[in-house]
Amino acid sequence: MLRVTFNTLFRNTLRDVQRTGAEFARAQQQVSSGKRLQQASDDPTSAATGLQERSELRAIDRYRGANDSVDSRLRVVDTVLSDLISGLTVAQTRGAAGRTTVLTPEQREAVALEIEGVRESSLTAVNTSYRGMYLFAGSRSTTAPYSRTGNTVSGYQGDTTVVSIDIARTSSTAVSVDGGAMLQGGAAQDVFNTLAALAAAVRSGNMTAIDTGLTEIDAAFERVTQVQSRVGAALSALPGERARLDELRRASDTRRSQAEEISLSAAITEMTRAQQAQQAAIAAAGTNQQVTLLDYLR
Q: Cα–Cα distance between 13 and 292 in angstroms, integer?
């Protein structure tokens, strides 16, 4: 009977020593790493939560990166549109100045050259690329929207498909422009041919043709302005979307931290408790073993 009692007591005491030792070792590891979970088996539910939140953080970071990329691209688009609007404004002003009978041939030539200068600068502007991608060719980002052979500008070489980038799970923003719709729309000719015709009309003093050209330039000005308004609205919405993503990221990271990490003060407290428990178990084991052996030998 004493042998059975001794064996049982020994096994129980040994289990207590092993258990408290394991708890102390785990507490020490938590203090050194700052993490509550060392492996998934420590707490499968919290481990699953941590993995889920890490996946969420990666998704949010991708959207934040997309947000920054969209912002950069749209700022380039906005700058180009401002250049186009400035050029068309010059063409409107100079075309109106050429609509008079008092100009000398030399003066008409100077005005016509200014309008042709707007044509050149507008072609350069609309063919702007960003990181190797043309912004005004729809989805045909590797093709320049317009090309020139001699003094002839090609027709629109892009397409009507506008490229959009997801900046959130339920939100996307257009980052390219259908240059054909913007620079021609429903008109009989694009703005480059209109500017060439306006310059020729100013040279010849053809008032009717100048009026036609100015009307078409006004329409092109409105189309470009409308595109810039949409781009401006998209740019204005980005900071709010970025702030929302930052808030989502903070919330997700808090949930991840709660599942995986532990505060240093709490970890030290737990380590101290575990150390005391182990020391008590070891002391109890020594005492129990001595008493039981004496009893067993009697």
A: 12
Domain 53-254 in CATH 1.20.1330.10? The answer is: yes
Q: Distance between CA atoms of 10 and 57, rounded to whole angstroms?
A: 50
CA torsion 50-55-56-61 (nearest 10°) is: 130
Q: Is the pLDDT of residue 16 over 70?
A: no
SS3 readout for 73-131? HHHHHHHHHHHHHHHHHHHHHHHHHCCCCCCCHHHHHHHHHHHHHHHHHHHHHHCCEEC
Q: What percent of the chain has pLDDT over 90?
A: 67
98 has a pLDDT exceeding 80: yes
What average pLDDT does the chain have? 85
Selection from 204, 190, 238, 187 nearest residue 77 by Cα: 238
The three-point CA angle 119-151-187 to 5° equals 55
Residue 165 pairs in a beta bridge with: 173
pLDDT value of residue 2:
46
Going from the C-alpha of 150 to that of each of 117, 147, 222, the distances in angstroms are 15, 10, 29
Does 19 have pLDDT greater than 90? no
Residue tagged 């320049």 (tokens)? 144
Pick from 174, 175, 220: which is nearest to 195 by CA? 220
Q: What is the mean pLDDT of residues 201-222?
A: 97
Domain boundaries, the chain: 2-33+279-297, 53-254
